[in-house]
Amino acid sequence: MNAPLNHPLPLLDLDVLRTFVAIAETGSFTTAANAVFRTPSAVSMQIKKLEDILGRSVFARDARSVTLTTDGEMLLGYARRLLSINREVVSKFIIPDIVGVVRLGSPDDYGERVLPHVLKRFAQSHPSIAVDVTIDQSSNLRRRMDDRALDITLLTNSYKTSALGAEVLLTEPIVWAGAKGGCAHLREPLPVSLWEEGCAWRAGALEALGREGRNYRVAYMSAHTAGQRAAILSDLAVAPLPKSFLGNDMVELCPKDGMPDIGTYSLAMIVAPDASAPVKAVADHIRATFEVFRETGKF
After folding, report:
1. What is the DSSP string of the chain?
2. Which fold would CATH assign to domain 100-298?
3. CATH topology classification for 12-92
4. Strand pairing of 66-68 and 59-61?
5. Which residues form a coiled coil (predicted)?
6. pTM of the model as a whole
7. Would the N or C end of the chain have less CB density within 10 A of its end CB?
8. Per-residue pLDDT tens over the stretch 132-189
9. In b/e form, how buried is each residue of 40-49, taking b as 16+ CB within 10 angstroms?
10. What is the pLDDT of residues 177-210, one digit of tens each?
């Protein structure tokens, strides 16, 4: 029921709205609970409180999924705006007005997949810091750091290598990716899609194939993740990818499919030793992003 006009309208709790947005973005009460550092039962109580205040259901729930209702979709836009305004107001009083330019390097794969989320959220909390992004191979990015052409860089390393002075953000398996329902992995010689020389995933994949004595041919080469995905989804070839990069249109190919184990890789970060306040702010934000990913599996 709508509140009578002669009574003050209730105030929406920003903490509840933050939980609501987290559920809408993840599609899961459990995943959202991890993201907002609450128990699933506490999250459920928050949403019940929100629905009681509004007198409307904001989520449609079934055994497998959580989706927004029409009212929930309307609320989502308002909730994001309110949270954004809150961040802007609070940052004016609590967060120092840090100004500057940060030169950030990233490999193509994480530049495409992670940086849009990182930079969007960072711009909301630090609007006076500009981030200048360079996308390149890890080996080239390391040289740029050594030449002081970058302030921060992300690097991918194989399980056999590590970058001196690097902070490991993430370690995960490299797997063989194939098209769902595809047959590229059954062909002889095996058609593979690879990155250029210097890629940690390429080195691990070729070593695994050599160890197993599997005949292969390089059917496709690309320095970009989008190109690798195209080769996989067209069933032109199989390719080594981090396990978290697999989409719903791909499958992980295992030893039972005739594909050898590749091993793991790590994503690391190097920060300039004389880092300025803006550089430290970006580095802290990247660390926080990967902490959430390790807990929830989502950026």
Report:
1. -PPPTTSPPPPPPHHHHHHHHHHHHHS-HHHHHHHTT--HHHHHHHHHHHHHHHTS--EEE-SS-EEE-HHHHHHHHHHHHHHHHHHHHHHHHSS----EEEEEEE-HHHHHHTHHHHHHHHHHH-TTEEEEEEE--HHHHHHHHHTT--SEEEEEEETT---TTPEEEEEEEEEEEEETT--GGGSSSEEEEE--TT-HHHHHHHHHHHHHT--EEEEEE-SSHHHHHHHHHTTS-BEEEEGGG--TTEEEE-GGGT----EEEEEEEEE-TT--HHHHHHHHHHHHHHHHHHHHS--
2. D-Maltodextrin-Binding Protein; domain 2 (3.40.190)
3. Arc Repressor Mutant, subunit A (1.10.10)
4. antiparallel
5. none
6. 0.67
7. N
8. 999 998 889 999 999 999 999 999 887 555 556 788 888 899 999 999 999 999 999 9
9. eeebbebbee
10. 999 999 999 999 999 998 777 677 888 899 999 9
Nearest-5° angle of CA 87, CA 89, CA 92? 105
How many other CB atoms are there within 10 angstroms of residue 285's CB atom? 17
Contact 36, 19 (CB under 8 A): yes
What is the amino acid identity at position 246?
L
Query: 67: which 2 tokens?
Result: 């989706």
